[in-house]
Structure formats: C-alpha cells, structure tokens
Amino acid sequence: MTVINGIFSYCFLIPVKTNLMKYFLYSLVILLMCISLTCCKTNEEDNREEMARRSSVRDAVTVSTVELKRSTFYHELVSNGKVYAKRTATVPFRVDGTIERIHVKNGDNVNKSDLLAELEDFNYRIQFEKAKQQLEKAMIEFRDDLISFHGTEDTTGLSNDMLRMSKIRSGLIDAQTNLREAEYNLKHTRIYAPIKGTVADLEAKEWNPSNIYTDGLCKIIDNSVIEVEFPVLESEYGFINKGMPVNIIPFISDGSEYTGHITKINPMVDENGMVKVRAELRNGGKLLEGMNVKILIRKPVKNRLVIPKEALVIRQGRDVVFVREDSLAIWKYVTTEFENSDSFSISEGLEQGDLIIYRGNVNLAHETVVIEEDK
C-alpha cells in the first residue's frame, strides 16, 4: 500500500509529456490498489475460517466402556408387602373379674405356660366348693334311688337307661356339670401364655374389671418364623410359583435384606386386579409384626445382551446407546426387551463384542472424539 501511495504521488509531481503517458500511469495505480485490497480480503477470510475450524474441534471426552457379552438377565418383579408372624395368639379373659396382678409388660419374652396375669378368685372358689358339696349330696341321692327302684346299690346288672334315669332323678348329672363349670371358671382366673413368644398389645391394668378389655389381655407373637403378604398384578400371575425365592427389604435404611420363599398363592383376583401372595422366612429378629417391606423377585432369563442402565440415553425421543469405535463415539438406536433396577436387555441395535459407553455419555454426540478412562 505504501508503494502505491508513492507511485500516486509521483504521478502528480513529475511532468507528464503526453496524455497517453498520464493515462498509463493512472491505470497502473488503480490496478495495484485492486490487487492490494483483494489480498487483504483473502487474508481476513482465511483467518475467520481458521478460527471457526478451531472452535469446532473439542477436546476428547473421557468415557468408560464395557464389552457387550451374552449373559443372564434377571427379570424383576417389585411389590410392597406387610410382615405377619406365622404364629400369633390372642390371650382372652375367659371369665370376668377384677384384675389382681399382671406379671408381664409389652416386649417381654415368655415361654409357653408362663403366668401372665391373675384375677380375683374369691367368688369362683366359693362356687367351686359349693359344686363339690352339691356333687356329694347328689351321690347320696343316687344311691338312695338305686335302692328304692332296684333294691340294690350294685349297678352291675342295670341297663344304661336305668342308670341314666337314676342319675337324673337324684340330680347327679346336674351336679357333675356344675362342678366342671366351677372348676373351669376357677382355673381361668389364672391366665397363662398359650405359646412361646413376645408380649404385645397389652393394654389392661391392675384393679380394673376384665370385661372392659374387649380385645383380651394381650397378644403373644412368635417372630421366629414370619410371613410376608404382598400383591401382584394379575398379568404377573404367571411369573410367580410356589418355592420361588424372594428378597425382602425393610423400608428402614440400614441396608438389611432377607431371603424367603413363596409358600401361598391365593387363586383369586380381587376387585383391584391383584393376587395375594405369601412368602415365609426365618426371622433374624429385626422384622416386626405389621412392618412394611419392599419385595423383590428375580427370575433369570438366559442368553441375553445385557447393558448397564446408565448406558442408555434418549436422543430425539428414541433409545440410544453410544459404542466406542477406535476414538469415536458412534450413536446407535436400540430396542429394549426387558428392564430391571440396574440393567436393560437389548433385542436390536447392538452386537456381541461392542464396547458400550456407560459413563461420560450424557452429552455425547455422534462421532464425538473420546478417550478411555484409566481402569
């Protein structure tokens, strides 16, 4: 550009002898100016293209891959259930009376036949003594009846009908019945544990009448073996069968998990389209009557292409898995067959041996440059 300015100045400073010479010099100046402007424009365009190219090239994305192999996929059925002790006994008040003593409290462990409570028994003892006296009197009347009607106390030769009539006339049958009733009532003023277990729902208090506690004294719960009841959809009825293992996970967040087996399947569908199922297991002591739990049933399906759940992403409303080929992430549409809590079974779109990208794939695009994470 400086050269052109010098030539232009020279044209005006030197004398020009002919019009032809002046025209030639002006043309030369204009030509050189055009060449200079074209060169500047070309350099600017090249710089912009280089900047655009550099901005489009991203650093390689670090990813983790796993080689796709055929393996066993575990089809999962998830439900919520409730815990029930297999053996539970309600301890009732079999006779009315004032509660005199309670020997246990909620949470106590008891053995079968342990004394739980006592009722005031004065009236029942009196009734028992009277019943015994009435029986003695009836026995005397019975012997008198035998002598009066049959001439002897010896019952060897008498028929059953004759003996029965003598017992009725003497009041012996009534006396025997009254004594059994009095003995029963007196016996049940002492309340004993019917089974081994833990005391629960004990609401009764001493020196209160027993008849105000309509639910009885308490419950005894044997938690050594428990049952878990849970519903399954009628469409999943064919998925389950007796003896199938189930995982039982309490909602309390301590990481505990128990294994049981299905023991009962109710062959009826309720109004909500559900089938009731029960599983049984040995209790380690942490599962309580009425506790809510999560049920997980896993059924193996062999020879499937299984990928981690993190490997599948959504692109344009479709399921996509990125596969690493050399240093590029290749976008592949897939069709899922089954799903569980941590993986998918793929029926179409992938082949055995593919390197499946399962980490670092969230923001990938087709043919993104990737690098394998150090393992």
Mean pLDDT, all residues: 86
Q: Reading side by side through the largest sheet, how are the strands ordered?
A: 13-14-15-19-1-18
Q: Could you tell me the radius of gyration in angstroms?
A: 49 Å
Q: How much β-strand is present in the residues?
A: 35-45%
Order of helices and strands, N to C?
A: HHEEEEEHHHEEEEEEEEEEEEEE
Q: Helical proportion? A: 25-40%
The CA-CA distance between the termini, in Å, is 60 Å
Instruction: Give the low-pLDDT segments.
Output: 7-18, 49-57
Whole-number count of domains: 4
Principal-axes shape call: rod-shaped
- Number-wise, the strands total 19
Count every helix, treating DSSP H or I runs of 4 or more residues as helices: 5
Major sheet details = 6 strands, mixed
Structural class: alpha+beta
Structure explained in plain terms:
The structure is a single chain. The protein has 375 residues and is α+β, with helices and mostly antiparallel strands. It folds into 4 domains: 53 residues; 84 residues, conserved putative lor/sdh protein from methanococcus maripaludis s2 fold, CATH 2.40.420.20; 86 residues, Beta Barrel (Elongation Factor Tu (Ef-tu), domain 3); 126 residues, no CATH class. Helix content is 28%, strand content 38%. The chain has 5 helices and 19 strands. The two termini are 60 Å apart.
